Inverse folding.
């Protein structure tokens, strides 16, 4: 270069003007960004993580984990090992920050609709419907939630319990008499779905039940998938299933309005409001979208928790024996053949602790997705408007600072009051799960009939998880074989009234919204 003349240097610069200009711009931008990064890092801590390529980010890594027998939370677990509790990533084109703490949970849950809103990935948003509780604005959400509360009132729960208890007794007895192994997950999914369908839309005919159940399963399976309408994919099947569900409900509503059908159920109670003012009724889109959500929630989350309760109790015989002792005592104080009542459920203090410990360990809702509506700060970390923030219930529930020996199934840990926002299987705040009391009724009734009437053997101990699921479920389905108990040969024990909690009230951070449930 030193031997080149001035004219040759000018000619070289002219021939490579574009390259030189780009290089200079890159150097200037790099210096500017580094200066800005240093300025930001000096004020607020940096959230570690890897965003990857635009749009794609780490989407393939998440889907790979979802398609493995370790489950989709393996994606989160690995990044915690690499980056620490706080980390960010990019999924389906959006930046996600996983929130690992009770303080972070409090900040988000108490600011729902103010600084945060629901933040589903596209496939989940498409599956749940734009007029469902998950997506509507605040005022509409309050109206829909209020109108949807009827199936979860004490009167409705009492009727539901009587029907569900009868179904439990008949089906468990039939399975025990058959003497064959059956998959508990399939059993729990079917019985909870049948009970919810009966309560909400009075569908009991088996072929229609199974078609609606299959469509709901396909919609649920599409919730964490690539949102591409390619025939044969989970997303395609889910969207088509949702369209069939909408048509089934639309036809059902039309028959009810013309008087061809009439039933005493939730759907009929909503249609009787047709002449009410707009703020006292649901339009057809709101009604159908939220019916599908209620059916899917009852089918998937509660049934998975029922399966995990049997798995955990089988692994912990001491807890199983203590629970059985309590439940047999309750059964002995009732007339033979009598149905369970809400008062019976309120006399199950240890049963309630078993249920809560099952929910803590199973985490059928792994995290709660939100999107930031404004720039904000959580525990000193800067969150930009449009970023997704996921309240990581699994991380909180397994935090050894909150729960001693968190990997150990120990219902007695709930003898003590839990720190606010440390137990969030139903979420918290204005979006607290609408079916919180329905889930409690269902699980406690199941635990009562199972442990007071039977012993069981788990026939497949494989801990692998089911692939392609957005919630953890055993790949085996937890197959069990039942053996009936002769209760007259077992000693009874009394349940101390002083230990009876208000099972159907809000606890901890849920209490504030118990009136909405």
């Amino acid at each position: 270069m030193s031997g080149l003349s001035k004219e040759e240097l000018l000619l070289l610069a002219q021939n490579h003007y574009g390259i030189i200009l780009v290089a200079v711009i890159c150097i200037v931008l790099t210096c500017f960004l580094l200066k800005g990064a240093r300025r930001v890092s000096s004020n607020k801590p940096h959230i570690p993580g890897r965003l990857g390529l635009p749009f794609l980010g780490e989407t393939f890594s998440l889907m790979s984990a979802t398609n493995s027998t370790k489950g989709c939370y393996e994606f989160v677990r690995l990044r915690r090992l690499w980056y620490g509790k706080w980390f960010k990533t990019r999924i389906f084109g959006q930046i996600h920050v996983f929130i690992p703490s009770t303080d972070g949970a409090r900040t988000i849950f108490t600011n729902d609709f103010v600084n945060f809103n629901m933040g589903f990935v596209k496939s989940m948003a498409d599956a749940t419907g734009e007029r469902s509780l998950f997506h509507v604005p605040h005022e509409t959400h309050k109206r829909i939630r209020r109108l949807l509360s009827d199936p979860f009132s004490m009167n409705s729960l009492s009727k539901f319990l009587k029907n569900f208890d009868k179904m439990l007794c008949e089906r468990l007895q039939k399975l025990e008499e058959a003497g064959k192994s059956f998959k508990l997950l399939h059993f729990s999914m079917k019985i909870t779905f049948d009970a919810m369908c009966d309560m909400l839309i009075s569908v009991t005919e088996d072929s229609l039940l199974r078609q609606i159940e299959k469509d709901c399963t396909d919609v649920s399976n599409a919730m964490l998938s690539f949102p591409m309408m390619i025939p044969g994919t989970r997303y395609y099947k889910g969207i088509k299933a949702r369209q069939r569900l909408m048509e089934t409900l639309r036809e059902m509503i039309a028959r009810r309005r013309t008087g061809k059908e009439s039933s005493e159920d939730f759907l009929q109670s909503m249609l009787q409001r047709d002449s009410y003012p707009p703020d006292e009724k649901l339009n057809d889109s709101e009604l159908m979208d939220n019916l599908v959500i209620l059916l899917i929630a009852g089918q998937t989350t509660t049934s998975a928790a029922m399966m995990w309760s049997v798995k955990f109790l089988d692994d912990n015989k001491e807890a199983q024996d203590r629970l059985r002792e309590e439940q047999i005592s309750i059964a002995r104080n009732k007339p033979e053949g009598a149905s369970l009542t809400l008062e019976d459920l309120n006399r199950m203090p240890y049963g309630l602790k078993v249920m809560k410990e099952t929910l803590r360990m199973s985490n059928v809702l792994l995290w709660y997705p939100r999107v930031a509506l404004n720039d904000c700060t959580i525990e000193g970390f800067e969150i930009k408007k449009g970023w997704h923030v996921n309240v990581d219930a699994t991380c909180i529930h397994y935090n050894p600072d909150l729960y001693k020996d968190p990997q150990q199934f120990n219902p007695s840990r709930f003898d003590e009051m839990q720190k606010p926002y440390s137990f969030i299987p139903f979420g918290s705040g204005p979006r607290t799960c609408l079916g919180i009391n329905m889930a409690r009724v269902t699980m406690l009734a199941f635990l009562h009939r199972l442990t007071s009437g039977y012993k069981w053997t788990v026939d497949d101990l494989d801990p692998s998880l089911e692939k392609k699921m957005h919630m953890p479920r055993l790949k085996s389905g937890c197959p069990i074989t039942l053996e009936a108990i002769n209760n007259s040969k077992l000693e009874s024990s009394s349940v101390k009234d002083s230990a009876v909690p208000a099972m159907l009230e809000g606890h901890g951070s849920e209490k504030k919204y118990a009136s909405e449930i």
Notes: Confidence is low (pLDDT under 50) at residues 8-13, 30-42, 488-502, 505-517.
